[in-house]
Amino acid sequence: VQLQASGGGLVQPGGSLRLSCVGSGITLDYYNIGWFRQAPGKEREGVACISRSDGSTSYADSVKDRFTISRDNAENTLNLQMNSLKPEDTAVYYCAVDRWDNYCILRKASYDYWGQGTQVTVSS
Predict the structure, then answer these.
(1) Do residues 49 and 32 lie in contact, with contact meaning Cβ atoms separated by under 8 Å?
(2) Low-confidence residues of the chain, pLDDT below 70?
(3) Which of 25, 26, 30, 49 shows the greatest Cβ crowding within 10 Å of its Cβ?
(4) Which candidate, 88, 85, 108, places its Cα nearest to that of 98?
């Protein structure tokens, strides 16, 4: 199983980025899938996730109304559209798979497959 994340980069405050995570060896729409991030010196935290059972989504309060998570089943891809980016969004972003629960939650202990991470830097 591999999760390949991409799309990170350097963007100015207020800008946008779109992250993608492609799964190989695993069919992503069978499972809960999510995005996490880790800033230097901080714990990894949940950003957004999609439930396998009904496609419902969950967001961290800090990104609500700015980030949108989606999946493309045909491409076996998870996406994260990030708008109105702030310096505090700077982190390494990871995609992850939870194979066991029916509904997703933003708790890293629930996820057992992880991608390698992509760096997002928001700075002027």
Answers:
(1) yes
(2) none
(3) 49
(4) 108
